[in-house]
Amino acid sequence: MEHIRFVKAPLKIKFEEIGEADEKYKREFDQLVSSDEDSIGQWLKLAKARGETGDSDQVLLNLIVELHRKIDDLSAFVKDEKPSYLKLTFEEDISDISFEHFKLLNFKLEKDKRYYGRILMPVFPKREFALFFKAIDENIAQIVLMHEPDIKDWSSYMSARERVMIREAKALKGV
């Protein structure tokens, strides 16, 4: 196994081993594409594609869209509407991540087995990333499939965690 450069990342993952019949997991994975989560996200994507947002302040536009999502969430809460995700068997802490791997804190994976999981990511907007992964040893997993926007946010989060570690190391050295 090649050397994997990990950084500390306090995340949680819900996951389950998948057998040959992974259709239900693939279906949920496809539903969790960030642009398909809500109508306002789809609308914004189409408006950007048509060039209708060129004169808009992008930061302000994103904040307004996120506010709209929060109102939708509150409305769903009041109406007792909950998104229906698959019930996944295991929940575990992630201790470290890399660009294509992560390390579980306590759970022992079965080498070469395939898994489906969801990770609640502290990115903006906050959302769950769906992913397929394979155990490369008892506590290290390799990400096999993740949506393109989630890959970008995963990489950004990884870089942010790396910067935190660098600042902590400098503080400990007294620099």
Chain-wise SSE layout:
Elements: E1 7-17, H1 23-31, H2 39-49, H3 58-78, E2 90-97, E3 101-104, E4 114-121, E5 127-135, E6 140-146, H4 148-173
Antiparallel strand pairs: 1-2, 1-4, 2-3, 3-6, 4-5, 5-6
Short description:
This protein is of the alpha+beta class and 175 residues long. The protein has one domain (7-173).
How is this structure best described in words?
The chain is an alpha+beta fold and about 180 residues long. The protein has one domain (about 5-175). Helices cover about 40% and strands about 25% of the residues. It contains four helices and six strands. A six-stranded antiparallel β-barrel has the order 1-2-3-6-5-4.
Keywords:
175 residues, 38% helix, single chain, alpha+beta, globular
Helical amount: 25-40%
Strand content is 25-35%
How many domains, in number, for the residues? Answer: 1
How many runs of DSSP E, i.e. beta strands? 6
Quickly give the structural class.
alpha+beta
**What's the helix count?**
4
| Terminal residue distance | 35 Å
Side-by-side strand order of the widest sheet? 1-2-3-6-5-4
Integer-rounded radius of gyration: 18 Å
The profile of the biggest β sheet is: 6 strands, antiparallel, barrel
- Shape, per Cα inertia axes: globular
Average of pLDDT: 86
Instruction: List SSEs in N-to-C order.
Output: EHHHEEEEEH
Low-pLDDT ranges = none
